[in-house]
């Protein structure tokens, strides 16, 4: 995780998994966070999941910037079930892009 620079949140899922959300180095006006989920198996930590779960690119408040340039991608995760046979990962995804320069790419969806 050499690209990371700040640990945002740590959560325990069902006493079996550890969720770590951390900030990733981005560019100007770009915020990125990834989520890593690990579990213990046979005395070792194992990576169960790693995904980009937040990205925001915002030029709306930049001096001289385009007030129409904005992008937001956010994923919220929740583990359902209590045993390996019943585990399900519930994802809530928000994906939004606004651009005055390329309006054909404008979108907003929540699933």
Q: Can you offer a commentary on this structure?
A:
This protein has 111 residues and is mainly β. 0% of the residues lie in helices and 64% in strands. It contains no helices and 7 strands. The chain has strands at residues 4-13, 17-24, 30-41, 44-58, 70-80, 88-98, 107-110. The protein has a 7-stranded antiparallel β-sheet with strand order 1-2-3-4-5-6-7, with no helix packed on it. The mean pLDDT is 87.
Give a brief description.
The chain has 111 residues and is mostly beta strands. The protein contains no helices and seven strands.
- Provide the gyration radius in Å: 17 Å
Q: Report the biggest beta sheet as strand number plus sense, adding barrel if it closes.
A: 7 strands, antiparallel
Could you tell me the strand content as a percent range? over 45%
Order of strands in the sheet with most strands: 1-2-3-4-5-6-7
N-to-C span? 29 Å
SSE succession? EEEEEEE
What oligomeric state best describes the polypeptide chains here? Answer: single chain
- Gross geometry: elongated
Number of strands: 7
What is the count of DSSP helices, taking H or I runs of 4+ residues?
A: 0
**Uncertain residue ranges:** none
- Name the structural class: mainly beta
Write the layout of secondary structure elements.
Layout: E1 4-13, E2 17-24, E3 30-41, E4 44-58, E5 70-80, E6 88-98, E7 107-110
């Amino acid at each position: 995780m050499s690209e990371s620079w700040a640990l945002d949140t740590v959560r325990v899922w069902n006493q079996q998994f550890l969720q770590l959300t951390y900030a990733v180095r981005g560019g100007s006006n770009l915020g990125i966070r990834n989520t890593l989920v690990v579990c213990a198996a046979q005395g070792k930590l194992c990576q169960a999941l790693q995904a980009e779960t937040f990205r925001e690119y915002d030029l709306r408040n930049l001096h001289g910037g385009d007030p129409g340039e904005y992008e937001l991608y956010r994923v919220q995760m929740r583990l359902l079930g209590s045993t390996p046979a019943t585990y399900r990962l519930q994802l809530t995804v928000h994906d939004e892009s606004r651009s005055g320069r390329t309006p054909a790419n404008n979108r907003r969806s929540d699933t």
